[in-house]
Amino acid sequence: MTRVKVHPNAAAASLAVVPAAEEKGEAVSLTVWRRSLLFNGKGFTVFDSNGNLVFRVETYARGSPSEVVLMDADGLALLTVRRKKLSLAEEWLVYDGDGDELAPRRFTARRNMSLLPTKSLCRLSPAPSLDGTTGDAPGCRYHVEGSYASRSLHMFACTGGNQRRRVATVCRKEAAIGPDVFRLMVEPDFEPALAMAVVILLDQMNAS
Description:
This is Protein LURP-one-related 8. By secondary structure, this protein is mainly beta. The chain is 10% helix and 40% strand. It is built from two helices and twelve strands; from the N terminus they run αββββββββββββα. Strand 1 and strand 2 form a beta hairpin. The longest helix has 16 residues, at 192-207.
């Protein structure tokens, strides 16, 4: 039986910018630990299948912070998740990099607030740029279904009509105790960092 590996392989952590499986055209298996590596910090630490550090999130705000930055192993900002201010709906914005005033906005995410029973948790829509065009593939939307509390999620890319394909999955990790360690499976044609940003979004939505 394979032993569950939570802590990173420090010797190779700085090299784990792109998971090896993604380079081979295979699904990427990531282990997500809902804990910061820093003392007194909150966040996430993410490892690849070899135990190498890939992504990390570190926050110090009490409660649910209004902004969370996804970083690589070296601390470089990859994506920023920010709650939208002065909005009647529960909306979040996803930016490239550290989310400064010049950073491109990738997506607008909205929590599903339907009173009817539904599997849908949230949806991401391409954010319009300054010239009114979308920065993502035309017409591409993402829907997330399942239960974040149970760590059972499916993320789908919707390209129009009823056509959709699964791009990422969250599930319980074998032999893991509790919900703070779980598995994130990312299909080879999808961006692992964006899949992790969706996990951050759902964590924020469930904390709000």
